[in-house]
Amino acid sequence: MTVYCEGDCRLLDQLGEKQDFESELSRLGLRHEDFTLHVLRQKPEGRKAEWNQNYSVTVTNIVTERSHLYQGGPRRNWVGQFSRDIPTGVYGDPPHDERRRRP
């Protein structure tokens, strides 16, 4: 099952980051349907309207109702930051790894 995404989702699809995020959920043993993404491309400021490659991604765990905002763009790795946030409880209790409990 794919993660529900709203906003400028095509941006994540073009960069392959939605697939990276879904792969990370699977690796962490998390259910895809428990998370949503909201993507917003940042608007350029000033007189010169140059194309801006920066964007924000709000990841929400709909079960715990916890969200976190990540910055995306060149030299930024929001999926990696999400992975580092999971064990710290940003989205609720960290998942239990059944493999670690087995002798």
Question: Can you put this structure into words, describing what you see?
Answer:
With 103 residues, the protein is α+β, with helices and mostly antiparallel strands. The protein has one domain. The chain is 30% helix and 24% strand. A 4-stranded mixed beta sheet has the order 1-2-3-4, with helices on one face. A hairpin with a 4-residue loop joins β3 and β4. The C terminus is likely disordered.
Low-confidence stretches: 98-103
Portion of residues within helices: 25-40%
Task: Please state the average pLDDT score.
Answer: 87
- Order of helical and strand elements: EHHEEEHH
How many helices in DSSP terms? Answer: 4
Oligomer category: single chain
Write the layout of secondary structure elements.
Elements: E1 4-7, H1 9-15, H2 17-28, E2 35-41, E3 55-61, E4 66-72, H3 78-85, H4 98-101
Entry keywords:
4 helices, disordered C terminus, single chain, 103 residues, alpha+beta
